[in-house]
Amino acid sequence: MASDYDEVRPEVKESQESSLEALRTESTPDARSVVRELDEADTVDGVDLPGDFIAEELIVEVVPQKKDEFVCSSCFLVHHRSRLAKEKDGHVYCIECEG
Ligand SMILES: [Zn+2]
Domain check: are 33 and 48 in the same one? Predict the structure, then answer.
């Protein structure tokens, strides 16, 4: 029975495979399905990239500006109208920035 010497011992091989599998599933859970999708995309017109998700994340939620508030052109914070110190060329500055 010398045939086993060239082979990695079964229990070692198994632990290597399971740890690799663990790494794979841990870092990229959908790696296989993504690869499969990419392969399909090569043969199908109209590649469906997940661009919608990226675009949604880039959208900054805009808080409606109230009439008695303004955005300072220096610190870009929203201040109450009473804190407006200076208005120049369409830009407004708060009292904190104008001191
Ligand atoms: Zn300011």
Answer: yes
Residue 82 lies in a domain: yes
Range 47-56 contact pairs with CB under 8 angstroms and sequence separation of 24 or more: none
Burial class (CB in 10 A: 0-12, 13-18, 19+), 16: exposed
User: Do 40 and 71 lie in a common domain?
Assistant: no
Cα of 4 to ligand 1 centre, how many Å? 76
User: Which structural domain range is residue 92 located in?
Assistant: 62-99
Q: Report CA(92)–ligand 1 centroid distance (Å).
A: 8
> What does pTM read for this prediction?
0.35
pLDDT at 76: 94
d(CA 49, CA 41): 9
**Same domain as 92, residue 70:** yes
**Whole-number Å distance between alpha carbons of 99 and 94:** 8
